Amino acid sequence: MTSWKNKRNGAIAERVGWVVFNDFKVADNLLAGIEFSLANEVGDNKAAIKDALIVGKSAGNGDGKLRWASPYGIIAPRTENFNIDTIQFYNFDFNGAAALSTCSHCFHDAATDDGCRTIKTQNLWFDATTVTKKVRYQHPQRAIWLDLDGTLTGKGAGSMATKYQPYLESASECEADKDVYDSVICDPSV
Question: Is the pTM of this model over 0.90?
């Protein structure tokens, strides 16, 4: 699927079981390229985004509301059992835009989520010059990004990132990176 210039998302899934968005190409969307809301209807490694190309803002696209938007490439669900695999991200270097975010639809009082979930990632690629923020959390600002191969954190297979909290920074296996990840990044020993 190819989807661009939507007033909200390039693609969205609400309550899914074994659903994989495969080979999607999305660009220039106001909220997110791809969003999954709930993905816990079946076991792990079922609901996923695979082999996607996600562009925050195409070159020369300064028109309309996108100039003022602060979009995400992917907004992960507010449930467990979600996988992000083989994704390329480009042009998230404006208005605080970020490649990844968490907790779909948690921004309102009836979100039915106040806990943390684990999102598994692998084979991620970020354009070094145009993706300045890899992760930006949404309310309630809790998630664990389990990096299966080190392509998200750069710390190796089994490393992780989680929302920055000052007390987490004291662990010798972790380091804070609030600018790019809004997180504490921990090596695989944690």
Answer: yes
